[in-house]
Amino acid sequence: MNGSAFLFWAGRGLPPGIFDTHGMMTRFLTSCSMRQTQNIYLIGPMGAGKTTIGRLLAKALDVRFIDSDREIEQRTGVCIPMIFEYEGEEGFRRREAEVLAELCSEDRVVLATGGGSILLAKNRELLHERGFVVYLQCSVEKQLERTHKDSNRPLLKTENPRVKLQELFRVREPLYRSLADLIVDTGTHSSRSAVRQILRAYYRASANL
Ligand SMILES: Nc1ncnc2c1ncn2[C@@H]1O[C@H](COP(=O)(O)OP(=O)(O)OP(=O)(O)O)[C@@H](O)[C@H]1O
Ligand SMILES: O=C(O)C1=C[C@@H](O)[C@@H](O)[C@H](O)C1
Ligand SMILES: [Mg+2]
């Protein structure tokens, strides 16, 4: 293992319980093993659990958690639906790319990205370069279940959110997959179980360097 501290928990040993992975399915892609990184970036569709799992993961690693959607809201002082209303999706994507570029310059962070952040090639490149990328995956049915009470997702303010989510899935799923160092199904696993899978795979990837 390279002596420079590229592991969050370098020198501290493994976080307790991360091998406690009974019954979990992990698809581990080794492409990241050539890159040194101190960051974990969560990608995936709305309601997949990026914010929820990201918080838990950062806590387990004792590193900073950043949610790019919240960061955009804090910087602009308005909520995401309002940005969509005044500047359209294009305006939002511009802001998102700016914020992402800044957040990707940080080290030792767990970053929950916006569901559409992978649409721009420059964002995908940055995420790939600077972090261990985890695709949190779940079915459209699960997404609907998890998002139906929340009005903070402008793309779902439509007559038929199911159709919208299916359309987004068709376009985005190949992009999420192509970028992922690890894919975790949050539809069938609890948040805590997802965190354990991520820690285990990240540790393995780092140990392969
Ligand atoms: N296994 C699970 N993993 C993650 N979240 C879950 C799980 N089961 C239920 N949830 C719930 O799903 C809801 C949506 O999760 P969350 O807001 O973290 O998704 P998100 O990916 O950040 O969505 P968005 O892209 O819209 O910000 C939360 O209320 C969370 O508690
Ligand atoms: O899937 C999307 O395009 C979005 C997901 C959210 O995280 C927000 O970034 C915004 O609502 C757009
Ligand atoms: Mg979120």
From TrEMBL:
Monomer. This is Shikimate kinase. Belongs to the shikimate kinase family. Pathway: Metabolic intermediate biosynthesis; chorismate biosynthesis; chorismate from D-erythrose 4-phosphate and phosphoenolpyruvate: step 5/7. Substrate binds at residues 69, 93, 115, 172. Mg(2+) binds at residue 51. It is found in: Cytoplasm. Its main location: cytoplasm. GO terms for cellular component: cytosol. It comes from Methylocaldum marinum. InterPro entries: P-loop_NTPase (IPR027417), Shikimate/glucono_kinase (IPR031322), Shikimate_kinase/TSH1 (IPR000623), Shikimate_kinase_CS (IPR023000).
